Amino acid sequence: MGKTIENINRSLEPVGKNPVIEVAHLQKAFGSHVVLSDFTLNVFGGENVVVMGRSGIGKTILIKCIIGLVKPGGGTLRVLGQDVLSLSHHALDELRTRIGFVFQSSALYDSMTVRENLEFPLRRHRQKKITGTIDSVVREALRNVGLENTIDMMPSELSGGMRKRIGIARSLILKPEIVLYDEPTTGLDPITSEEITDLILELQKTYKTTAIIITHDLELARKTANRIVFLKNGKAWAQGTYDEMLNTQDDEVKHFFKK
Question: Which of 11, 27, 104, 114 is deepest in the core (most CB within 10 A)?
């Protein structure tokens, strides 16, 4: 058993009454390498949960399990009331229209314009009803990230920060209920990182989303997290507010959060 931070959840009031993500005793291993051994976490509606921990410890694998990109070896996983592990391919595809995934690399298609990159999920998920024309929806998404003027540009013409913003716009274009962010500020300078952090908060208000944010960026965690979960030994080793994590007596967590 890992150390826990005593009474750390007393100050944490759920944003919503019911969890929209329920992870219980999740397990995942690659051969003899155990990534998740007994990971349990509930995320409530409207909540920002930041997951932190050392590199290569399984943070990205966790959110890939949540969206069904990686199949866990055991445990239970419910998202928006649905048992992810028992869904058919079609049902999983439908569930994914309600979840935005922001990849660390932005994952834009280099051969497509910005417009075409944002149109792609709209055309792929035709069953998802949208309000307005495809062009108006694309422009709205770009306007919300402050980049409507890039609509006919190629990804190669964009800066790293602009590519991150376009990636976020594409993940939000179907107006998902949940957004999963994988290292949204990695590789960015401090000013651009701050802009992306502020954008995440602004878009949460606009789209009323619930989010899991994977990051090593302490300032991003401080500004966005309702709750921080520290992943160690495949478990939710400790959790609490930013200040509680910063002031904990747990040596492992203290070392990670020290300035």
Answer: 114
